[in-house]
User: Fold these one by one.
Assistant:
Number 1:
Amino acid sequence: MSYKKNAVSYGIWALYLTVVGIVLSFLGMAVGGQGNGIPYMALLLLALAFGALALIYFLSKKIVDSVKIKKMAAGKAALVEAILVAVLLLTGIALRILLIGEAGEEAAYYEVAKVTENGMQVQLVQGSIYYYLCLLNGLFRLVGNKWMAGIVLQIALQMLGIGISYFAVRRLSGRGSALVALVFLTVAPGSVRAGMTYSPKMLYFCMYALILLIIAGYMYRTTRSGGRVLTWILAVLCGALAGFAGYTDIVGFTLAIPLFGLPTLKREERGTVLWAAQLFLALIALAGTFCLLTWLDGAVSGSDFGRVLGAWADTYRLKGADYNFIFREAGYETVVMLVLISLGVFTFMRRKSEEMFSPWVITLLSVTLLRVLGIVTPNMNGSYQMYFAMAGLAGVSLSELFVQGGGVADIPEVVVEDLDEMSAEPVAARRRRLPAEAWPPEPAAGAAPAADTAPAPAKTERERQPEKPAGRRHARKQKRQMETDVPVWESLSQETAADGRDSEVKEDMAGKKQEDAQKQVQFIENPLPLPKKHVKKVMDYPIQPEASLMHYDIEVDPGDNFDF
């Protein structure tokens, strides 16, 4: 699904370019080990990076534009996609099983969640951690307090979330972007390590991906006709789910970005008021769900609404700027993703009137800003949501490189063939496809019958002459014939020869017409007789008989007895 490229899109692209330049500058400072003074290394790395990316983009653009990419059939493309997705998911599961010995935990979740005589005694404001501990405690009640059971649960939750996120990215940005993002989420070392660590991040990621998929489904339905009642229901549901995700963890409010950013980037001009009304209901549902959950939390814990809301706000208060996490969490796959994300600054221009970058850019910047400002908590710092947004943006940046023709949809070959056949179809053949009462038209009262407008066979040189001069020539020839007294049988023989030539020309034209008709679609012959245009036959050569033939009397031999 793509969005209309307008002034908002170019503003987001400018912000995108600025942030990429800042990140590359920080990397240059880190590489050069420079903290104070003029960052020469940062500026040098920034110039070299943008120059190299521009060169890679223009070379790739030239190669892609010169190569004719043949599109697969829908069934074959779906089969290839299913095979690739299955291979990547199985590879991800195998990697995690092979490296399961390196599993660990971020905090004492195992000790808190394991089954004891006193039960699980925990009082936490943050909902995502509480839900995760309840899930672990339920698992341990079934299989016992086994460490490895929690790791298997983590792997299962991560792979489930990755599968759901694939369909969400596919719905938002297409098949190519989803496959690239799936590669990073399944086989990248950072993602593999995150899936083998006791943490509520994977449970929250499953919920985050599922809500994003529902929002993507709603956004897709708004660009299609029909099912208007379901669209209203989905709008309210998406708002409620975004409110639930935001109450559980503040990073969940970033799900509202693709939801409420739709009116400024939608492709259709019609239906703006309807969409605005739906999104207003979604906003009310978001705020209502958040307030309802806050009230229920207070009712269960024996507190009032104000104190619970104050505790939630204190949990996510501003804690100070921190950007060192970018370097602490950076790995080899992060460098590759950063290169692809930087390449997206150029591939943004591949489409003339549409783009796919804005939802991912704003989501990634929002999560990064929450982490930089220290609004997140230590145990739920939004790191995997940031990683997921980077993978999605990297997939869009790379897949947009292969866009051809400015992103304008090509006319299918079948349609082109039909258009060619329609343009080459004779008028008479198209006339035969009309109903019997539609052709020929009834002449008006007192009017002469209309001549057939069907394309006649190619005329000979004799027939191309203007009609009026041909008539005068014909009159002069008749007068000359009367003056010279041409015998009747001679005139008939000459007219017969002319008719023979005309018949040969007509036979040739009929043969050509039959060959053309065999190449085209054969239609049912019109049973109604059509008026035929009268074509005058004119002899365009002089008659000069011999002098011995200039009389009517025939000399007969006296000895000829033909009378008897």
Number 2:
Amino acid sequence: MKKILPLLAFLCVTALMQAAKPTGAAETRSLIHKVNNTWISQHANDLSTAWNNSLYQLANMDAYLTTGEEAYLNNATQWAEANQWNGESALAHICYLRLYDQVADSRRYRAATRFIQNMPREKMNLPIFYALARATGKDSYADMLEKTPQTPLLEDGGVTLAELARTINVKGVKNTPAILCENFRHAAANEPANSFSDQALFAYGLMWGINSGLLSKNEYQAKADELWTNIKKLVKKDGSVNDGSTVSTATFLMAACERLRQQVALNNADRAYWCDIMYKLAAPILSNMAEGKLHDTMAIEVSPAWDGRDTGVTYMEAFGRLMMGLAPWLTLPDDDTEEGAMRKQLREWALKSYAQAVDPSSKDYLLWRKESQPLVDAAFIAESFLRAFDQLWVPLDEVTKQRYIEEFTLLRRVNPPYNNWLLFSGTVEALLAKAGANYDQFRITTAIRKIDEWYKGDGWYGDGPGFAFDYYGSYVIHPMYIELIQALQSLSSGYASRYKNYYANALTRTQRFSTLLERFIAPDGTFPVFGRSIPYRMAAMQPLALMTWQELLPTGLTYGQVRAALTASTHRMFDGQENFNEKGFLTIGFVGRQPGVSDSYTNNGSLYMTSMGFLALGLPASHPFWTDAALPWTSVKAWNAKPFTKDHRISE
């Protein structure tokens, strides 16, 4: 009995969250269940892998991800098992590869790999290349797109739009050739034909485009609403759709699931909770620093074993670390929601705080030119600019920009220790390069080569030549290393070519480490506490948060399970605990006030590393990370006798 309690608690919380959602979402979810339950009950023996039945299974998987109904996953898995993961259509293999996220099984992509060898390079087969790239980690499959026609796929507007949406959706908009995105916007301008399936596909494509940010909500939402109103009227009392065909059922479910994501985005309890925590972290720092009052307001708290350095570094640590975690959220555009107002206020405070940080006449001028510690937090500030360059660096006035360039350049006085500090030096130089200033290529190259040299295997790096079992792979090494290479790749094609292999390995390692972090999260939301810098709290999950934000989650992890796991950990850490003092600043500890777990370098500014566990706030509210159903994460499945993904080491 005891072992099922965590699962029951998880399901109860999920049920309460679902019940609290608005009527529109409840109605759409009910329609999905009505239609899909009817279809499954009547077609349990339909095992065909032809394109129409495979299209239904893709829609069935959407229904599982958006509602969390386990029967839908079971149906898709049984269909695949009955066919031994072989199929006559590309759609069947794409569905198998989506199932790979649920239980990683090499059969699911080996068959697809065999299929693709003899598959004609037809336009409608585009999505399988991205699906294989994601499942195998081999970009060579994605590169095949360059050899495949990428003009609109078919003459029919609805099918074209839906096909493009599926293509782009497999790996994420951020990693998709621009020509595909342009074709998507072009296809959205074409009116669909009058058939039910085409209307449904067009509605699906429009809503997916709006949800992903590729289409303007102001321009296309009214049409999407009209189409949705029309197609849902054709759901009959018995749960059949239109003419009762496989295609009608599949296309309706596709549109309904995307509609549900839109509706869930309007009132998402998990996202609201994350926003509240982040605002609670950020507001005391930024509201005071924007007015040059942080030094006057934030009382310094240091470790009982403090090493004697200048305590003024506390303010630099608080600001730099907070901004590195907050930056992704501030990249989202302004809107008229409550969250939008919070985000806009934080961005305005942040821009003023950046100016205060380098203004020698300000009380909040940071400790740039004393001690060596400023190199660390200068790197966090530089990384915040790299994560939100257009929103946080570009708007700064020229005087402030030049002051940053000067301060960053003067930090070359610090000779970084032979450990993760090399990344701090390299990151500062990468920001200088992106800002168009003079930079030291040797410091960048040294950091990249040495971190690669210190890799120990299976996702773990050493912090220098040796190895320590701690979360420094999370706090610094994984995120800063991969983002340093990404920053260089964005500068010129020469850099992209030079660092291609480094990036491929770094991504594989970070994805592996993210897989381990998700497995660390127990059914009750706790995770192991070990190593140095324990008071950094949720920063232990930064690589998992980074891969989520960059839409690069490894196979075996779905958005719904990662959100559920991270949300559970955040609740365990922040609910009902003494994490904040009377002025709203963090206290030293892991969960609550625990000064005894601090290190000799820990102060209450150090603690704002925890903001780095919230990078997924940089994904819009309509993203599947937020709108998919909360799903059991790996340890919940494992400890409740449910199927779960088998673990395996990586090789390069």
Number 3:
Amino acid sequence: MSLPRPVSDTLIDLLKPIAQTLGERLGATATGQSFTDASSGALALRHQVKKDRRWIQAQIQFLQRQELRKQELRVITSVEKARAKEIKEEELRDRQEISKLCRELMRELQAEAIKVKLNEIQVIWDRDTWFSNLSRQETEQILQQQKHRLLLLVSPVKISKDCPESFIHNLNIELPAKLRSFLSQHYPQHSETCPVQFYGDYFKQPISDIDVERLQTILGPVPTAILYSDISDYEVNFHVGFWGMVNQNVSLVSIQAWNWEKVYEQLGANGQDDKVSLRIIRQIIVSIHKLLAGFLADLYYLSIDPNYEPQLDKLKSEFVQEWFAQEWVEPYIESLKVIQKQQQLTAEVELRRLADKENRAKFQRDILGETERKRKEKAQAEYNLQEQSISKVKIHNWQCVYTMPGHSSFVNSIAISPDGMILASGSWDRTIKLWNVKTGELITTLTGHSDRVNSVAISPDGMILASGSSDETIKLWNLSGGDLICTLPGHSIGVNSVAISPDGRMIASCGGSDHTIKLWNIATGKLLRTMQGHLDDVNAVIFSPDGKLLASGSSDATSKVWDVVTGELQRTLSGLNLGVNSIAISPDGQILASVRNDYTIKLRSLPTGRLMRILSNHQRRGNEVENSGREQALHILRNYVGRGNSVAISPDGLTLVSGSDDNNIKIWNMATGQLINNLKGHSGTVYSVAIAQDGKLLVSGSGDETIKIWRRD
């Protein structure tokens, strides 16, 4: 039986605007049109995934297989339809694997934020009595889920006592049950393309807007949508709350109130009895919830996956069967189609750019192969002569004298004062801690940053501490008292690194999506100049010992050297293959060390850019140096076991210290490339290392949330 025409028209007018509103908000992620801050949530995670070497490699391999399939399809005859079908199925499976990898990498990126929330849950639970209405166990289970998915919650409907008893007795039974059945059939949690984790009984009582914001303080790292409604004696109000789908902020959307009483009267006038009329209205309310749930799920997976095929277009018949006119669904389907087309176009452009980049790289490798072979032979001959005159560095034993717990997350950066008395540590827990180096005791904790602290640096006179944070600011502190001196606005999507010039007059900083380096006057806080040239995030900056040059390392797979006075680019050191995490300059200003994302450290001549040595974990046969692009190494170390995250050079310039994700600290002979020490003790990635000016003290910061002080014999 179809609904009376006036009833259908009323519902179309009710539902069409919400399709437009949600489509505009959530579609911003898919199309890259940031209507609000997108520094976190799905857009930021997707951006980070695109820079992951595993994602890049998967895309390159997909392009190669796709080209082979296209070539085969061009020569297939009409009688080989079966093979053509197989090729198309292979293409689909390939795209599904790419989508799966994307979700796995997004879950990996969320892991740290989830860990933080699990550690905070007791404090949050104790602070607000509202949480006693929820299940603590279910909340922890939601956070601990290992699979990336959309969490969808529905609240019990708030029903006025003046409503018919049919509503009071049945609606809160029907709504979660039918919504669960709908999602488990079309968006099941085990789905490989659109997993939705649904809870119909998570809330024990109806919720309001403020409750959605409360819940976000715990479930913030998990992309979540919440449906909640209230019914008076004559109208229904539908509400949607969500976060993590565009950014981490809570978005609240309300649908224009629906006058169910008028529909009830129209149904009665059309010959329906009271019981059937109320049942139809309840089914319409449930169907609207199902429509919103399906639309939200499709929007989310379109936002993170250009290969995703929305389900809603296939579900028209299901809604029609439940007193739901097919035309009610059309605005939602059209909105999804527009976003899907824009998403696919964007993905195709990105793939073409990657293909062009690969073709250029292959061309360079082909035409330069013979030249590189000759350069390699010459470099090896130079190295053999050099090795004959190198004196051996004295090998010292190092002992861990202090292990300092105190941070509640990764220790991302450390700095030692020039007099060797104070140690500063910056952490993802948003704090900076100052420690007594001689005793290992905590002096004070500096708070003020609202996001992770990525970098700390101490001025040459030991008076000022600078810190850079993901909250997009740089802060200057009085090192002796811990007082905040001033706050400088930083970079888009955070400040990755800060460095203080040898004369103590300037600060260099680098940041995220703006791809720039900035120089600041310490005394006035004034921005002196901005240097542009990198094509991706700038991860590290450091001044040369004479203060005339500034070196930078970036995710665009280059290091650059800049003139500090003019801001002009002096040279670009390419041939790095993958992004640069950390850099260091030797005390004589002759060597630049850069730590890459592909597990290696490269040593280059700072004045000329010539590659001198590669420190790598890759096992190679004999003494052969494999092709590494335009530059060839003189020597390769075979013992570097983990991914390099930090590097420092000793004050005498003879040794290099590196930290990595094998949880160890390695000490190398700079002249020979020999591994002379391997310090074990951390239980997590070593994110930061620093050496005191007397060369007798080494400090390390780790993902195990501790700092260790090492002294040499």
Number 4:
Amino acid sequence: MKAKILCLILVLCLCLSVMAGCAEEKVDPPAESEAVAETPAEEAAPEEEAAPEEEPVPEEVVVKDGNPNEVEEFPVELPITTNGESFEVWMGMSPAALGYINDYSEENLVWKELEKRTGVNIEFDLYHPDQTSTLWSLMQAGGEYSDVLAGQLTYTGGNDQAVEDGVYLELSELAQEYAPNYWAQLTCNDELYDSVTTDNGNLVHLATFYNTYRGPDQGLVIRGDWLDELGMEVPKTVDQLHDALVGFKNELGAEAAMWIPTSCYYQEGSILTAFGGAFNNSGLYNDNGEIKMCAIQDNFKEYLQLLNQWYEEGIIWKDFPTYGAQQMFRNTSMIAAGDTGFFRSEVSEMATFARITEDPDAYFVAVADPVLNEGDVLHMGRNNPGYLKAANWIITTSCEHPEIVLQFCDYCYTDEGSLLCNYGIEGETFEYDEDGNPQLTDVVMNNEIYDYRVAILMYVVDVGPYVLDSARGTNNYTEHMHEASEIWISTPTDEAYAIPSKAVLTADEQTEQTNIFADINTYLSENLVKFVTGDQSFDEWDNYVATIESMNMARCIELSQIALDRYLEAQ
């Protein structure tokens, strides 16, 4: 038996050898006469088409779960250029600062110094932020774009569509070559990378991000000293807030105890969420898998009725409709005069507002988003803590030298560049304390002309391509200011109404929805204020809802429902 098996093995080996030899054997081509005989002259064999070149597959981006400010720094050789290249930045500017500015790149110390160090010239095209939507629409319609776009802009169809349309530059490969510091910091943290890149993984932004993991830096604030005088605690419910505001007006003489923006709701920090509302830019929200529009729901009506009641009681500033679309409160004269004590603010301004009241006991405290009943859980809450401050600068395809812009920005992400952007010039706008930490001087902190918010815009970089030091300007922070970020995210939130960020509309869907919403939003802006001021009776509510429904609102909802269903099916 063993002998038979051995024989079989030998035969098998022999067969494999022969087959291998056949595979390696070269076959001579047929003689020319044979080839002609097989292929007639009038039917020459067609040439074989060359295989199409395959597009190179981009390397997969490796993103880590670390601290973006602990990566190894890449040196940046200065100056970046000696040829005098320049680029234009289209940017909205606080109206409080616009009146002081003629040439921003010359009047802001940091931008002027950056030009000197890098050899790159910057031209700022500044505009009033109330005009953002109009000017941006005109720019898109005209098709002529600035080199760099700064701010939170909404491109028709989204940022991925802007890349596909050849308007925004996709920066991933360029950043790796010309902005290695930014790329290393961005890809060091998966949460930061996801928050800056698009749903399709495109990188179009040069972001401002913090050097520490932190919560929001703006929200609702209230006069803490007034609460003390009235013997009240910081309000947690809507009723408690109402009682405090009534006390501010009737007992302390505040003529505008509460200030609200012309939109009648705050983007960050709101009473609306207490009513189960989820009003955002689109007004749409996800109720257990069903897309709904907040502005026509009964709970939104209840919210507007509350504001109307408070307006009639005189605790809401009577002239709020005339203030403009700015989200931030800027009427410092009213604060200084003690006419108002509850509004939305940045934490950095809480000390400034207390100082300008000329009341030595004045102080502001943060207020968490109030609820109807203590223990309630909100369905739409605040931004979670993170590194990202703002996804800000966008380089367009109109930019002649994007590599120069990226190198310029990359310097701002170095330790040296970030120090300059955060604190300006040593001896002028900052000094080192005894522990070696930079501290802003009174030129910024207690300027005789500008309040702190304007001084930041005039002397250092507010939002732009750099790493923002979370400790900047905190040397005069009170205990209440240090606690503010944690307070603003303290109200329990289950995010049940949130639409997943990956449930995106296609470009065509987005365009269609945007076009429909244009008319709806115009109607909303005209009518919400009327409900609050009483110029329009709530007896007209059904007509108001019917009008919105007649403006093809159902299609807007349907488009977002399609996107949500598509996302859920893919899970």
